[in-house]
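Structure Section — protein described below
Tokens — whole-number codes for backbone shape
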Amino acid sequence: MSTINLQRTAIRFLILAFMLVGMHNANAQWKQSNCSISGLTIKSLALNGSIIFAGTSTNGVFVSKDNGLSLNESNNGLQNLRAFAVAGNGSSMYAGTFGGGVFVTNNDGSTWTAINNGLTETRVTSLASNNSLLVAGTATGVYVSKDNGTSWLVAGSSLPSVLVNAVAAMNGNILAATQSGVFVSTDQGVDWLPVATDIGPAATSISCFGLNGTVIVAGSTEGAFVSTDGGLTWHAKNTGLANRTINAMTVSNDIVFVGTDGGGVYKTYDNGENWYDANQGLVFTDVRAFASTNTTLFVGTAGGGMFYRDLQQIIADAPTEPVATSGIPSLAFPNPFDTYTQIQLPNDMSSPEVVIYSVQGIPIRHLVAQPKSLSTVEVTWDGRSDAGDICTSGVYIARSESPRGGHSVRLVRVSH
């Protein structure tokens, strides 16, 4: 091939590469939902099947039936438009309003009906549901309904009658974050015990909870706190979290996402040990709410309405892979991957074994590498554990040991 042809081929390749990068970046950015009302502040988000419900600060409830492309008002029967909280349970969706109590819809938001029997405090700040249990945080404490909102009971007297920032129903327990600290009930709201006393004044500013397996993550004005013993003890986990005022939280694919006050969205693959921002295209960075499907992450913002982004793109947008100390790069292709990835490591290993770890440091799979050249070895991972189970989407680490200190590759598995 002539020199001119080689140059033309190289130019075509570079143009194609730039086009592909541009397409990837476009798909990986946040996109804003269309809405007839500008400047919308969304306080909460919830899903009912494929329908997204958004509770707003002053404009009632909005609904999206097209995976976030558009938001439309859904306020027929909603007598108070300060819809601070929304929560779903089966075919029902509930809206907690500040001053009007709780409303329910059983027809995808076409009409709303008040359900306030026994709810003597109608300034609702937060909602949580679990099976037939419905929990409402209010301006003066917690109310519990054991019949999907038909009737309400005030929580036990051991819970202070103060403003409740957030409630969560987790593993049969109820967590309440109040201006007097965090409390837990193991008997559906009858008795309450103070927890998170070890984090000091930050406990009074907790605004949201997330559950990732047995790990509980709490967001506050002083960052993230993590508990691995059911909420008895907590530890600050804020490495990489540039903005520590957390307003909202969700967990998807074992990844914890937090929304911050002016800092946008952050994610952690390892329950708070390290945080990374995920804000490409997010022009409104005061994030107040989250919801997610298997394919899409949604955020509610202050003044910007709702944004959405492909969830697998966020997962795949992992931190930069490390380079081996030998000067030979540690690589994997394809990466992100679905069914398999080929891992290449420097050929100075003290053992041919390559171990795949979860981001929590748990060994998942043990593999044996084969020489590819004088300088590199290669091994293929099929995304399964040693027991043959298919691993969930998320981030994994392939690691080998060598006299130079070892080599590692960050892998991202995205199931389709």
